[in-house]
Task: inverse folding
């Protein structure tokens, strides 16, 4: 700013007032430029300048006054603060302009000596500073107060809202049916709701306790680690069933879910536990499980529990390395039951069960009732075989004393089969079967004793007991099935039908062939129901084939073996007729095979049923022909239409050149058969050479591996389709 | 409150700086606590020109209110209004058009409480505690419904607030929700921080300073602001630095260049 008063006043045309006003405006312009940038005003520059004019006028009047009074300048400082010149840098700027320009532009001139003007200017600056400071302080205090009020008000508002939400939450918390507990990160219980207090049998019992104090012997030690993992942040929560001690010492079973609570951001500060009382449910489950796993009569573990434990013990991944097992069957119990009645029998069993329980000497021994009078003791990890035989001895000794019931002394003994050995590849059923077989051995040796299982003895006993006893059950359980071996017309290779061959899908021994169980079935009479079943199956199957292949040449027929025992069964004829009737199979499609030996020496009475079956139109085949010493002339009057040549005759024809003697014999038989109007079927055809020889010799039908092995009914279906193609 | 459990969350945390109180400090006010001043000092150290932006922002807001009043608008919705100090929308609007109604919205409980005190005697102005991120709660607030007739044009003021919304908050969708509630003839005012000029480092310092508040600050360019005006016709001179939006007097070199770090734009809903 170079313009001085001389220049400013140099206009000449203007009056003194006008000059004074323009000088004031110049001062204000300079003042505004210095202050505007340090104000926070929202006024425009022009507005701000206009705002400064009255303030500058106040200063000018004070400077020019006859009697100097600086006090009005105090108001100038305050007005500047009101105009938001609140920046600390504003004051030096405000005062600096006053100091440098006020006297210059606003001095009354010669009326006031320069030194006096300087002094007045300084005092005016002091007054402006005082006013500025006071106003700024007042303003600051007022704003701080209003802000604090606002903060308090906001806080109160927030508290009210929080209290309202808290009240709602509290109601939920207190009214919840599940137990809720909150503990700090050290495990100290901070809060619990009423439901939790009820569960624990009193608030005092859980308040101000530490969650780590709650140990209960029923709990798996592994769950103790869970809380540590939670606290270390290794998991977000956990969910377990846990036992607690109630205030009265009883057990509380809880379904427990624990999670961590954290504020919006930051580390977790509390742990929240939700508890559901499952004590009753668990008790009920345990009762149900006990009922499901214990014998109602004796209270001993039942078959299910025994197998569960045995499976556990035999688990190769388990902790058990060896087992001992005593299979006990009471000798003479059946007699008691039959002669004295079930009530007495039951009481006897209860008494025996009690004695058996007393024979156990350590927790690794378990005794179970697995059948009517069958008990089993399981010994996990016995120290040796002696320990197991000692247990068996204790059992036999316990049974040695007679049982007194209603003043009557009842004697029962036991036979015990022992299995002892390492846990390995054997399954539970296998182990039990072995024990069962061994027990029978003990029984056969006179009973009231134990025997220890060995594999050779097992094998010998299988046929006699294992299979024989299981036959009826196996039939009921559908363990039998039928395979079919095709019968081929040698002339053209067509599939004429099949022979039904029964198999036993034994759950332990696998698939057994007829020779392994038919003799047993015959010896027990089981052959009758079994044979009936096979007949039904085969007839139904043949009927199915026929309905699947209508009109394609001769309808397929089926051959079924008839045991000599069946032959003598009085219902045989009615059964055959019944099956044909039931299945709708034409009689001509059924062929019953009877062994040559069954007919040797049969008188007319014995043959009558067979004759009547033949009369129905059913073909009868003489099976295994040539193995006995048959009276060839008897062929003339037997009700037979087919000869089945034993495989012995065809062995010599397996390859070229064939045994000429065999060829001659077969040729002769065929010739004889044909002259009697019998067809000839050959069994055991295994090679092409045989097949060619037999066809050349005039045999009618062949059967054997060369054509097809026995297989499921669908296999014949495929073969016959291939043949048709 | 003694029976309140110790684990219940606090309502207000005065130990965290508040954007509105920091802004007040920039404007030379004393409506702030030490924690706010500390945050403000950090930002000032990085970029001493901030108060100028604040000042320019206030000035442009004033001019925009005048613009709206000149168009006959008598209703204002100011979201993110902060601590009411001086030169507020209601002062400017009611000075220009007595009886103009002003609805303030802020999410800072202290600013809301303060505004309530300031507006206690003003029947035509009110404050609602709500958040821009939930625009429906603003539109459906009982005070908004009482004070504003949304069937008539209003001026929607988004002054120095959108830059607190990260893209993840979908600011364009929020603004569109508000827009859809406005009657034709309404105007929308947006001012926003931007990265202009020579000191990106300083700007980063400001951003970092705001990271310490509950609301971080985002810089956007004029092009990035344009989508916010979807459905509006931008009035002249478009989106420009704060001092350049319809200045009262020609912009001079005396004006602090710091103010160029703010952008302003006004849109007119067709």
Result:
């Amino acid at each position: 700013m170079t313009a001085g008063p001389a220049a400013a006043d140099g206009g000449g045309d203007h009056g003194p007032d006008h000059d004074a006003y323009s000088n004031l405006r110049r001062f204000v312009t300079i003042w505004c430029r210095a202050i505007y940038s340090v104000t926070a005003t929202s006024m425009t520059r022009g507005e701000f300048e206009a705002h400064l004019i009255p303030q500058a006028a106040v200063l000018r009047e004070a400077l020019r006054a006859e009697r100097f009074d600086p006090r009005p300048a105090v108001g100038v400082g305050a007005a500047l603060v009101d105009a938001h010149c609140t920046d600390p840098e504003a004051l030096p700027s405000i005062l600096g302009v006053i100091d440098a320009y006020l006297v210059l532009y606003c001095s009354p001139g010669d009326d006031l000596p320069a030194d006096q003007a300087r002094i007045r200017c300084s005092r005016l600056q002091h007054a402006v500073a005082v006013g500025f400071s006071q106003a700024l302080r007042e303003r600051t205090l007022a704003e701080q107060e209003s802000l604090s009020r606002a903060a308090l008000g906001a806080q109160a508002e927030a508290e009210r809202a929080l209290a309202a939400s808290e009240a709602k939450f509290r109601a939920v918390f207190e009214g919840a049916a599940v137990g809720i507990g909150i503990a700090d990160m050290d495990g100290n219980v901070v809060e619990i709701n009423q439901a939790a207090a009820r569960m624990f049998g009193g608030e005092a019992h859980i308040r101000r306790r530490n969650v780590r104090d709650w140990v209960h012997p029923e709990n798996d030690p592994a769950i103790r680690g869970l809380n540590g993992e939670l606290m270390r942040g290794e998991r977000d929560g956990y969910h377990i069933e846990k036992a607690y001690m109630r205030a009265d010492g009883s057990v509380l079973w809880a379904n427990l879910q624990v999670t961590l609570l954290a504020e919006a951001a930051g580390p977790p500060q509390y742990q929240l536990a939700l508890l559901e009382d499952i004590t009753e449910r668990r008790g009920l489950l345990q009762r149900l499980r006990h009922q499901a796993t214990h014998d109602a009569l004796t209270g001993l573990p039942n078959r299910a529990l025994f197998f569960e434990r045995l499976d556990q013990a035999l688990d190769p991944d388990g902790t058990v390395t060896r087992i001992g097992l005593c299979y006990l069957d009471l000798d003479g119990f059946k007699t008691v039951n039959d002669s004295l009645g079930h009530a007495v029998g039951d009481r006897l069993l209860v008494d025996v069960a009690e004695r058996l329980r007393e024979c156990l000497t350590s927790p690794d021994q378990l005794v179970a009732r697995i059948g009517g009078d069958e008990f089993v003791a399981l010994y996990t990890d016995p120290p040796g075989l002696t320990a197991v035989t000692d247990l068996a001895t204790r059992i036999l000794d316990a049974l040695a004393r007679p049982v007194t019931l209603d003043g009557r002394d009842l004697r029962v003994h036991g036979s015990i089969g022992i299995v002892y050995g390492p846990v390995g590849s054997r399954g539970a059923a296998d182990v039990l079967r072995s024990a069962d077989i061994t027990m029978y051995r003990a029984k056969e040796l006179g009973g009231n004793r134990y025997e220890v299982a060995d594999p050779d003895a097992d094998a010998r006993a299988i046929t006699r007991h294992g299979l024989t006893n299981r036959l009826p059950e196996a039939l009921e359980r559908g363990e039998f099935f039928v395979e079919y071996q095709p019968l081929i017309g040698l002339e053209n290779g067509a599939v004429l039908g099949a022979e039904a061959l029964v198999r036993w899908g034994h759950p332990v021994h696998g698939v057994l062939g007829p020779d392994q169980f038919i003799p047993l079935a015959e010896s027990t009479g089981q052959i009758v129901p079994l044979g009936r079943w096979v007949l039904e199956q085969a007839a139904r199957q043949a009927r199915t084939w026929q309905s699947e292949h209508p009109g394609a040449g001769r309808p397929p027929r089926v051959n079924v073996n008839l045991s000599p025992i069946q032959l003598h069964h009085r219902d045989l004829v009615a059964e055959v007729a019944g099956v044909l009737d039931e299945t709708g199979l034409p009689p001509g499609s059924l062929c019953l095979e009877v062994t040559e030996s069954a007919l040797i020496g049969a008188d007319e009475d014995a043959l009558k049923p067979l004759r009547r079956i033949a009369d129905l139109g059913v073909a009868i085949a003489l099976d295994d022909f040539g193995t006995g010493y048959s009276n060839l002339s008897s062929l003339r009057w037997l009700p037979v239409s087919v000869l089945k040549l034993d495989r012995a005759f065809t062995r010599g024809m397996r390859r070229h050149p064939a045994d000429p003697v065999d060829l001659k014999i077969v040729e002769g038989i065929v010739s004889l058969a044909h002259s009697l109007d019998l067809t000839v079927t050959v069994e055991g055809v295994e090679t092409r050479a045989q097949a060619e020889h037999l066809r050349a010799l005039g045999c009618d039908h062949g059967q054997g591996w060369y054509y097809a092995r026995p297989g499921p009914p669908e296999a014949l279906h495929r073969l016959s389709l291939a043949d048709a193609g | 409150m003694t029976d309140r459990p110790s684990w219940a969350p606090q309502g207000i945390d005065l130990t965290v700086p508040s954007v509105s109180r920091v802004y007040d400090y920039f404007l030379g006010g004393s409506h702030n606590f030490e924690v706010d001043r500390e945050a403000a000092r950090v930002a000032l150290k990085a970029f001493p020109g901030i108060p100028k932006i604040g000042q320019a922002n206030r000035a442009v807001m004033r001019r925009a209110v005048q613009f709206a009043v000149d168009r006959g608008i008598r209703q204002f919705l100011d979201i993110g209004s902060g601590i009411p100090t001086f030169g507020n929308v209601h002062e400017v609007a009611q000075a220009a058009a007595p009886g103009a109604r002003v609805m303030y919205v802020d999410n800072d409980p202290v600013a809301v409480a303060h505004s309530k005190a300031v507006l206690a005697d003003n029947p035509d102005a009110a404050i609602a505690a709500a958040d821009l991120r939930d625009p429906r709660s603003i539109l459906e607030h009982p005070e908004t419904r009482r004070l504003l007739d949304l069937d008539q044009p209003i001026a929607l003021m988004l002054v120095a607030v959108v830059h607190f919304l990260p893209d993840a908050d979908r600011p364009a969708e929020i603004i569109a929700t508000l827009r859809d509630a406005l009657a034709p003839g309404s105007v929308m005012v947006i001012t926003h921080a931007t990265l202009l000029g020579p000191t990106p480092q300083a700007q980063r310092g400001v951003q970092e300073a705001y990271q310490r508040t509950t609301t971080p600050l985002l810089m956007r360019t004029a092009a990035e602001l344009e989508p916010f005006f979807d459905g509006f016709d931008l009035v002249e001179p478009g989106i420009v630095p704060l001092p350049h939006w319809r200045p009262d007097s020609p912009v001079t070199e005396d004006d602090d260049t710091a103010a160029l770090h703010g952008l302003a734009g006004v849109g007119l809903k067709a």
Remarks:
- The longest strand of chain A covers residues 251-262.
- The interface with chain B takes residues 33, 37, 39-42, 44-46, 84, 86-87, 139-140, 143-144, 146-147, 149-155, 157-159, 161-163, 166, 182, 190-191, 261, 263-264, 269-270 of chain A (CB under 8 Å).
- DSSP finds 24 helices and 21 strands in chain A.
- Residues 1-12, 721-725 of chain A have pLDDT under 50 and may be disordered.
